From TrEMBL:
One cellular-component annotation, GO: extracellular space
UniProt KW Nucleotide-binding keyword: no
Domain Serpin: start-end pairs: 25-457
CDD domains found in the cross-reference section: serpin
This protein's record includes keyword Transferase: no
UniProt keyword annotations, A-Z: Protease inhibitor, Serine protease inhibitor
InterPro entries: Serpin_CS, Serpin_dom, Serpin_fam, Serpin_sf, Serpin_sf_1, Serpin_sf_2
Name used for this protein in its record: Serpin domain-containing protein
Lineage summary: Eukaryota, Metazoa, Ecdysozoa, Arthropoda, Hexapoda
GO molecular function: serine-type endopeptidase inhibitor activity
Pfam families (UniProt xref): Serpin
Similarity field: Belongs to the serpin family.
Amino acid sequence: MKSQVCVIGTLSTDVFFKPLLDFTLNVFKEICKKDKGNTLLAVASLSQELSILYEAASTSSRQEMFQVLQFPETNREIYKSVFENMKSQFMSSKLRSGVRLFVDRKVHLENNFNETMVNYFNAKVELLNFKYPEAVATRVNSWVDQLTHRIIHTIVDKAWVRQEKHKSKVNAVRMRYLRNACGETRNDRVSNEWVLKECGLKGNTIGQCERSVLRWFGHVERISVNRVTKQIYEDDIKSDAPSLILATAMYFKGKWKIPFLQEATSNEPFSVSPEESIEVPTMYVVGDFQISESSQLKTTFVKIPYQDPLLYMIVALPDKDTPLDVVLEAMKVWPSNESMNNFETRPMEILLPRFVVESSVELVPILQETGLKLLFSSGSELTNMSPDGDLTIGSVRQKARLEVNEEGSTAGVAAAGSFSWKIANDLFRLKVDRPFLFVILGEGYQVPLFLGRVVRPQ
């Protein structure tokens, strides 16, 4: 019986390698195309999910992931080393991440997969009864809420769990009938890919595939489509397809090395578009910051460091005559662009809007568009996760929230407050008063924690 894995990511070196960075940048650009507002992608969390799915995938799906992401055989060792090293560098800032597999009691996981999750991903397995979607949703949300320090309260609801379970059952019934019919010609267990190819079935959606199955069985068994439909849905009602939710959560809180002055925050104009301007709380700080100006991208980049010496936020502010979409399309060349490798330290003042970015996105369609098609198709099998190959990936959902404000240590605030407005007015000024992009990452790590776009500060 075929079931679906629901993958959930939350957030409230070269790290992996350049192909993974390129892939996540493409994912972020696709999200921005579909949603024109404020956008946030927890890149580290997505990298975590992809690494786990690579461990679970069948040979064919792994080959696809290797072609797209160039995952090496030592992927698990790289992941463990990178994230352990990353966590060890967070002293003043807080970084908590977790992986948990919420599994229906009817699902049997491979022992090797269990060991890999524990040894390399520090993941725990929790057994639940998926016959009660409300209880499943409550438990998953409770875990996420606790790990993210109550920043993310809800990521699934009982209706969503029930919907994913129903799609799982439809897929299970479809493939079971196909296998039974084809089993007469082959004694060994046939794969989804072989069945679909031999039957000449086409269609990507559940509805299209289901209609193809019905037509095919009506022809082979010389029975009416109505009879097959009735039989399928009778079995669907009786069946209780097992389910699994792979949840990843990450919590980050960093304090600025040079805190913004709370008493200096004031309402300033922000140009959402050439036709619209709004007043937003704008923070102020003065000090020595690293800055780079790109004539190629027509963008100014500034590094705003956190208290941890290797951690910082990069704000990318396009020139006033440069649309944000142009800079977004050029994101892939950021790491190799001359401006990103030639920062200079300069005394300056920064005016940055105070903002909160929240994002909730279903990633499966976007991941398919960016190259991972087989992994999320009905022909995919997670044979390294379950010995029967009865799990497919139904959903990859990520919910993230990031708040940027003036907060810093008490001593730091006092030191920053010693600058006078008269001195500050003589310095180079960077006023972020129009849509911008930002990245949060660590020195020497090419895969960031967050990628974000702010169009309308809130």
